[in-house]
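Section 5: illustrative case.
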């Protein structure tokens, strides 16, 4: 027997539709690339997004076509999201911090038709223009006055939408229709695309709004410092209009002074970013003897929270820290670290120890840990195993079938993280099985670095591992086993990487060892290497 309820399809256009009806005057405050502050109400955002839809339709974009953005957090960027998703096209957020060749590769793989980007990224787009096989239209977030000269035949965003109708049909397609695409380079090989559906994004929005998750309401002022180009700004571009919370978009400036200026000036109540951003802010606050009277909650994730950041927020500034874990593949929120009720009155050290863990899954996410034979391990807070996840907004595979089947027999996805789970369901990451380095919240592929380094004639084998760094969490160390009889210098090894990887991927140091340890299958034994270098300190730290 079927229930007799309305078949209200879960499509993301309904989120902005709701904000326009119920919260029309709540607003997004953007600091644009040029530094000026612009305010856009949700009703204005709604109209601009409709104009974007009409502009896209004129470019021949329709259901399933991909539209790429390379954008800082801004109201214009949000209108590109909703304008694209509303007509059933697929919003493809590209991470501009990747190497330009990788950006070109991703855009070609996604077959993007339109590319919309901030002026900051014009040099990248101009550099890769001849590699782009499918992009027909380039749009730059600018008006007539701020439009930069370019060799792309690009159009200024404000002129592109100017005078267009604010009426456009949105939705009216099945909720499983693709709506967003985000590539992750967190695993081996080429980046893989996670293809979100309208349904998964709407369900993710619901599950992140709860009190023990992000817990925002219409009275909040929320500042996503976490970028819209990496893991969907943790869903905030959807959950804020859904709740009617005001938004503050920091644009390109994420240094301590700029972030403080917005937190204080805009009376931000909730904010979210990776630990590196908070370290810069805390240093600035301490140096200038400043307080955070308006901020009530800071969500920190992407990498584990260092204890001093947690304690500074909680004890020096009385801000509630929510540690969050997630992945591009989990839309991205998987767990959040609100204190369980039985811990609310525990002593400070117990609460801090609890908050250093990655937290509990909201309803809609299931976790389990397994051993190497896929046997489930007990949730006793001690046994550590591969962390597997299943739920309403978790990837079932990658775009175009890349990577093959990624689910186990019960539909769980292997995160590549190693964790324990306690009897209250709190998860704690203890290690990482995947071979990558995360610096300032962004991935560095150890394998890409190794592949280039072994191309050097004096190098027999090469391994890149992540070493603790106080600002960036991890930075790469390159370990070299030289060809017998050769002794290459640190400088010539680093020079061989020059131009082939993004500048910020360059290892902070090179160390030489007689023999790089190999595992039983001939693969580099990274565990042994990490153990070998456990007391090593980077010269940059
Ligand atoms: P991404 O897909 O780029 O968002 O990266 C997801 C990965 O980042 C996870 O699989 C973890 O390895 C790591 N990660 C994210 N959040 C945390 C956290 N709170 N603590 C430790 N590692 C994290």
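Designed sequence:
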């Amino acid at each position: 027997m079927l229930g007799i309820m309305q078949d209200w399809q879960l499509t993301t256009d309904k989120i902005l539709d709701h904000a326009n009806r119920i919260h029309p005057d709540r607003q997004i405050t953007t600091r644009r690339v040029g530094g000026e502050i612009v305010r856009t109400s949700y009703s204005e955002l709604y109209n601009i997004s409709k104009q974007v839809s009409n502009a896209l339709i004129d470019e021949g974009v329709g259901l399933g076509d991909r539209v790429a953005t390379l954008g800082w957090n801004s109201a214009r960027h949000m209108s590109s999201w909703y304008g694209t998703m509303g007509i059933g096209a697929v919003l493809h957020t590209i991470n501009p911090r990747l190497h330009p060749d990788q950006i070109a590769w991703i855009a070609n793989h996604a077959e993007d038709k339109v590319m919309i980007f901030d002026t900051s990224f014009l040099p990248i787009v101009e550099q890769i223009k001849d590699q782009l096989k499918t992009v027909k239209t380039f749009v730059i977030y600018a008006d007539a006055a701020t439009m930069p000269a370019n060799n792309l035949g690009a159009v200024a965003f404000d002129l592109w939408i100017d005078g267009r109708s604010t009426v456009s049909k949105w939705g009216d397609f099945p909720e499983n229709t693709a709506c967003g695409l985000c590539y992750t380079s967190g695993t081996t090989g080429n980046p893989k695309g996670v293809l979100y559906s309208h349904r998964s994004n709407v369900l993710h929005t619901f599950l992140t709004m709860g009190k023990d998750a992000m817990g925002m309401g219409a009275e909040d002022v929320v500042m996503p410092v976490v970028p819209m180009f990496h893991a969907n700004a943790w869903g905030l571009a959807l959950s804020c209009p859904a709740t009617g919370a005001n938004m503050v978009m920091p644009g390109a400036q994420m240094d301590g002074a700029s972030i403080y200026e917005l937190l204080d000036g805009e009376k931000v109540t909730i904010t979210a970013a990776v630990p590196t951003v908070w370290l810069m802010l805390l240093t600035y606050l301490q140096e200038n003897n400043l307080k955070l009277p308006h901020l009530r909650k800071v969500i920190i994730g992407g990498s584990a929270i260092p204890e001093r950041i947690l304690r500074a927020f909680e004890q020096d500034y009385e801000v509630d820290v929510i540690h969050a874990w997630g992945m591009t593949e989990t839309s991205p929120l998987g767990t959040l670290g609100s204190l369980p009720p039985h811990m609310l009155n525990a002593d400070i050290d117990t609460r801090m120890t609890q908050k250093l863990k990655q937290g509990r899954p909201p309803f809609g996410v299931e976790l389990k840990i397994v051993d190497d034979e896929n046997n489930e391990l007990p949730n006793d807070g001690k046994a550590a195993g591969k962390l597997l996840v299943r739920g309403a907004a978790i990837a079932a595979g990658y775009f175009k079938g890349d990577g093959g089947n990624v689910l186990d027999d019960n539909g769980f996805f292997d995160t590549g993280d190693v964790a324990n789970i306690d009897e209250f369901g709190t998860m704690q990451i203890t290690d990482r099985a995947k071979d990558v380095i995360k610096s300032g919240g962004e991935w560095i592929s150890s394998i890409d670095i190794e592949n280039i380094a072994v191309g050097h004639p004096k190098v027999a084998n090469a391994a890149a591992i992540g070493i603790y760094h106080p600002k960036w969490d991890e930075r790469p160390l390159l370990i070299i086993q030289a060809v017998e009889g050769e002794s290459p210098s640190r400088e010539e090894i680093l020079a061989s990487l020059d131009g082939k990887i993004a500048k910020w991927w360059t290892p902070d140091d090179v160390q030489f060892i007689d023999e790089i340890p190999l595992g039983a299958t001939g693969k580099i034994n990274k565990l042994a290497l990490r153990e070998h270098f456990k007391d090593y300190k980077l010269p940059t730290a």
